Amino acid sequence: PEELAAVERLAARRLRREPVSRILGVREFWSLEFLLSDATLDPRPDTETVVEAALALVDDREAALKVLDLGTGTGCLLVALLHELPNAWGLGVDRSEGAARTAASNAMRLGVGGRSAFVVGDWASPLATGFDLVVSNPPYIAEGELPLLEPEVRLYDPPSALAAGDDGLAAYRAIARDLDRLLAPDGRIVVEVGRGQAEDVAAILARAGVSDLGFRSDLAGIPRAVFGQKKIGNDLTGR
């Protein structure tokens, strides 16, 4: 009877469209198991495209790189990259204190706590300079599209991790404004984008002075990551 009652409670949660990952409290990403919390987005397999794109831009995986993850959530991007870059150090930033705490816990559990730090901040406003690699999976859903999302997303992911203004591009503009300060010479940036946003996001980064722009598609063939580089002498102020 106790087991049946437990199964019925779990089934009831799933029937309310709560994702299995939320019920279990964990999500696998990049073959690593990440704890979830109410303050974090549930990482999707599509986001692994950002990791793939970032690693493809790294010439020497043994280098002592500085990595920045904006809107870190569970910390999945930063932790996955630190696993692949054994001498890198990373900083994760999130507006949610709960998300930052969850990310820090995941980093410790997954063995990279000594090479990472997590802070609460509004994008890059509290940060210094000189990152070799900046990655982000920012909110990119237009406010008006939130009611159209699947219940698994709309009811259980935090709205602040989903919505980004009237056109879904507000976060990219905020990130672009700080790139001149954030990126080291020849530093690279990789951001996740939604369906149909790749060209618009590339244009935002280009106006900020990012060059060598390119796209990487997910397994469905959808452009999912936009990447580029700060060249020495480029003006990244957006003037």
How would you describe this structure to a colleague?
- With about 240 residues, the chain is an alpha/beta fold.
- Helix content is about 30%, strand content about 25%.
- It is built from nine helices and nine strands.
- It has helices at about 1-15, 20-25, 50-55, 75-85, 95-110, 150-155, 170-175, 180, 200-205, and strands spanning about 25-30, 30-35, 65-70, 90-95, 115-120, 130-135, 185-190, 210-215, 225-230.
- The strands form two sheets. Strands 5-4-3-6-7-9-8 form a seven-stranded mixed beta sheet, with helices on both faces. The chain has a two-stranded antiparallel sheet with strand order 1-2.
- Strand 4, helix 5 and strand 5 (about 115-120) form a beta-alpha-beta unit.
- Helix 3 (about 50-55) packs parallel to helix 4.
- It is globular and about 65 Å long.
- The N and C termini lie far apart (about 70 Å).
- Residues about 235-239 have low confidence and may be disordered.
